[in-house]
Every structure is written in C-alpha cells, then in structure tokens.
Write a structure and sequence with these properties.
3 helices; mainly alpha
Length: 64
Amino acid sequence: MIEVKVKKNEPLDRALKRLKKKIKDEGVLDSVKNKRYFIPKSETKKKKKQNAYYAQLMQEYKNQ
C-alpha cells in the first residue's frame, strides 16, 4: 500500500504531488487500466508478437 506522510508545515499540494509520483513509479494506474477490460490470450500473444517484430525492425534500422 502506498503511503505518503505529510511533513510538518508542508503544503497539501506538495504531498499530493509526491503521492502521484509514487503511484506512477509503481505502475498502479497502468495495471488498473490494463485490467479494465478482459483481453483474450490470443490478443495478448498477437500484440506481443507485433511489438517484437517492431523492436526487431528498429534494431535492424539502428545497425544500418
């Protein structure tokens, strides 16, 4: 669980900013967005294959 302790005489805005940064660093919102809808395994495999193909193209492009 993510916790942010507000320091003495610290503005609430700064504490909120630290909380948002911790949430972003831990990837909490990304995992929630990914679990929002059910995605079949075939779709995830297809997406992973597309990403690998694109990464390979980029690697070949860099080597030229």
